[in-house]
């Protein structure tokens, strides 16, 4: 294994998308864990201790907005870099994400290369 690029928690209720993101990041050299929705993410985040979380917005039980918001308000997870991934590309959604304090915002369908670039950048910042 080359350099330690960091640990990523991939959160998406769609198994295909979750696997696509996980495989791309694993091939890139990241250590990857997955969660099936926002509640699963919050349940696992302290065990995984990721540098970056990729977070789908539209999910059952607990959506990406609420999950990101809870991550930000909890002292032990407030520092984790968060990338929201959503089909909702409206400017109001983007502003809402930035208001919560997410670090990046990607719209579906996303380019895997762009996702990797964003995650790589955030992971480097998380480690700095």
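-> sequence recovered:
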């Amino acid at each position: 294994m080359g350099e330690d690029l960091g640990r990523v928690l991939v959160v998406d209720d769609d198994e295909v998308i979750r696997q696509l993101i996980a495989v791309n990041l694993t091939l890139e050299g990241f250590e990857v864990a997955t969660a099936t929705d926002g509640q699963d993410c919050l349940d696992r985040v302290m065990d995984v201790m990721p540098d970056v979380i990729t977070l789908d917005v539209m999910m059952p039980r607990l959506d990406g907005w609420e999950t990101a918001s809870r991550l930000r308000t909890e002292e032990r997870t407030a520092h984790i870099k968060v990338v929201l991934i959503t089909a909702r590309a409206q400017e109001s959604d983007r502003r809402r994400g930035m208001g919560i304090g997410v670090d990046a915002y990607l719209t579906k369908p996303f380019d895997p290369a762009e996702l990797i670039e964003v995650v790589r950048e955030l992971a480097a910042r998380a480690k700095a």
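The mean pLDDT is 92.
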